[in-house]
Structure formats: C-alpha cells, structure tokens
Amino acid sequence: MDYNTIIIRFGEMSTKGKNRKDFINLLARNIKKNLLGYNDTYSLILRHDHIYIEILKKDEFDYSPLKEVAGIGSFSLAYKADLFELDDIKNLALEEIKKENGKTFKVHARRIDKSFPYISDEINREIASVILKNTDLKVDVHNPDILLSLEIKPDGIYMFTETIKGIGGYPSGSTGRALMMLSGGIDSPVATYLLMKRGIEVTCIHFAAPPYTNAGVIIKLEDLLSKLNIYQDKINLFIIPFTKIQEKIYEISTEGYPITIMRRMMYRLSEMLANKLHIKAIANGESIGQVASQTIESMYVINSVTNFPIIRPLATYDKLDIINISKKIDCYDISIRPYEDCCTIFTNKNPKTKPKMKECEIIENKFDFTPLLNEAIENVELKVITNINNN
Ligand code: ATP
Ligand code: MG
C-alpha cells in the first residue's frame, strides 16, 4: 500500500494535562533529532492522541530511525486522503488492497469522527463487500494475510496495512536523571540503554585503576556510549581515579572481603558525585545471583552505605537475554573486547556470597578512607560523548 503519512502512537503514557503536552513536545523534539538527516522531507503534526509525520519527499525520506526513538509504541505507514464520502473511501480501499500480497483480508475501521454517518461495523461491511466482489480475496477475521485498517477523522481518512513496533518507554529526558555505574562489560551498557528507553537522562561514572586497568577501557567506554548516543545525544562520562583506594582495600581486607569493600567504596563515591551533580538516583548493571557480590545478602551489605535509590534494570534478567539486547543495540562486539577491569585484576580468593556487615565495619575502621574518597572526587575527569555536530 502506498503511504504519505506516518501515524505515531505513544508508548506508555499515564500522564494527563500539562505533563501530556510536555511528553508530546519532548517526543516531537526527539523525533526531529533522530530524523536530522531528512530535515525538509517531512513535516510533523502534533495532536493530543498521536503525532503525524506528513511525508513531503518520499524518495528521500527514511522512517527506520523511528524504531529507536524512546516513547514511540508503534507507528503505521498510512495513506491519508481528504475523503468524506463512503463511496469514495470504498473505491480507495479497493484500489489500495489490490497492491497487497495475500489471499485473505479483514477490514478494521474506526470512526473517530462521530459525525460520520455510518458506524464502524457498517463501514467494515461496506468495504469488505466491495473487495469481495472485485477481487479473489477471502475474508478471514482471525488471522488475515492483510489487515486493512481505517481511521475516519474530521480531517479525512487514514488507511494502513503496515504497523511497526517501536521501542516503547518514555521520551528521552522525561523521567528524571540517574548516575549509572558503567564498566566495560556486557551488562552495564544494556542497563544504560534500558534506563534511557525509560526516559531517564543518564550520566555515567566509571572507576578506573591505572596502571592495573588498561587505558583501552576508556576508549571502549567511549565506543559503547557513542552507540547509545542514538537514545541520548549527549552523555557525560565521569572517570574516577580509583587506584589508591583499590590498593588500600587490598592491603587491609580480610580474606573474601576485598570485593565487598570495593563495591561499598564505589557506592559511596557514586553517592558523592551524584550529590555534586544534583542527581537523585544511582543505577548499575547488577543481576541477582550473577556473581558473589550480587547475591541478595551481598547487595544488602553493599547497599547499606547509601540511602540513594539504586536502580538495577537487569536485576532479574538472565544473561542470555542481556546478551540479546546487547547485540540488538550493537554494543556486544565492543563489550567482549578483552580488557582488565578493576575487579578482575586483583586476585580475589573466595569472595563472600554472604558478607557480614560487622566484618566490613571492622575492616573499614582500620583506615580512614575519607581523604582518599574526597581526593578521588576532586580529580574526576569528564568526557562528553555526543553525536551533535558542533560546527
Ligand atoms: P558488566 O556488568 O557491565 O558486564 P561486570 O559484570 O564485569 O560488568 P560486575 O563486576 O558484575 O561487572 O559489576 C556489577 C556492576 O557494577 C556493573 O554492571 C557496573 O554497573 C558496576 N561496575 C563494576 N565495575 C565498575 C567500574 N569499574 N566502574 C563503574 N561501574 C562498575
Ligand atoms: Mg555483571
């Protein structure tokens, strides 16, 4: 079927009134950003129920970027016509359905303009009968090859057979901010994507421990984040010098505790940076049961150093599902590049799956970490990863 218009349906949207207006405006802005290369080939029409894209130059326009815009539930490639008489609509439906492949069909009309003189059922029957008379197509109401949808609106009719699923969620930047703990692995970029898809503006924090960790890690993180620029066009990455803290932890820890203490320090530093940036939530790629530091008991002991909400988008995900998303967002090949992160470099015998709070306190009381934590925050390095062209 031919199309000259795209009907964009919103993903989850529970808000009404002004919030709804803001949602739609933000979504429209993000659509424009994703369609940047196609600027004068379309125009956007904002309505309270949908956004429409009127296509001006079809040969130059490409709708595929819409598949990655957070906040779009689905979109349909529609033929819009200024028709207001049932006979004219029937003729168009017949003409358009002849262009489709398939043996069976169903008509699904919605009368949104209540002044239209026929109810949806009558429209369905009238259109179906003209198609049955003039083609070899048969009706199948349960599993049709061609579903011909029709929306009758005050400004004309929208006809379509093809609807494409969006990624859903909320428009980028519409649901607040979070500080994401980004390592170079598979999980944390996927968690970052899920946050962005939910409308959260993500700022990243990375703990680097040179010379134990390889400088290639930073390039890897930049490469990962540049893939995620599709969902958020400017991402701030804060790199925290973690070496001294890391060394001290290994010096004073008792057996099985370095990872627990290290993660408590990461949470403390995340909280300190979040406070500086006025960010009200911390997020990470933890997945329950994945490793010793991600048991419920470990999370309890590690999490107790902060009162911040900790968002764990992957808490209940299986690794295979995480890998599938990682591939879908084109991060997987980057994530599996070999590197040493600050957890793997220090040999760590029998990490505790059930660490004791008391033992953590005893270890941490052997040394005052506050000056080292402050120093790390003072020496943070910022990298901005963006796909916005600055010239
Ligand atoms: P990933 O989870 O990204 O695949 P990983 O599994 O090696 O990496 P874990 O040791 O499981 O990482 O750590 C769990 C989470 O803690 C990570 O998903 C990430 O959010 C955070 N994290 C770990 N190491 C770092 C680091 N060096 N800098 C920032 N965050 C980190
Ligand atoms: Mg992990």
What do these coordinates show?
By secondary structure, the chain is α/β, with parallel strands linked by helices. Helix content is 35%, strand content 22%. It contains twelve helices and 14 strands. The chain has helices at 17-34, 86-97, 120-134, 187-197, 216-228, 243-252, 258-277, 296-303, 319-328, 332-335, 357-364, 370-378; strands at residues 5-10, 42-46, 50-55, 72-81, 104-111, 138-139, 146-153, 156-165, 177-181, 201-208, 234-241, 282-283, 310-311, 381-386. Strands 2-3-1-4-8-7-5-6 form an eight-stranded mixed β-sheet. Helix 7 (258-277) crosses helix 8. The radius of gyration is 27 Å and the shape is elongated. The two termini are 41 Å apart. The relative contact order is 0.12. The mean pLDDT is 94. Bound molecules: adenosine-5'-triphosphate (ATP) and magnesium ion (MG). Residues 181-183, 185-188, 205-207, 284-286, 290-291, 341-343 line the site of adenosine-5'-triphosphate. Magnesium ion binds next to loops.
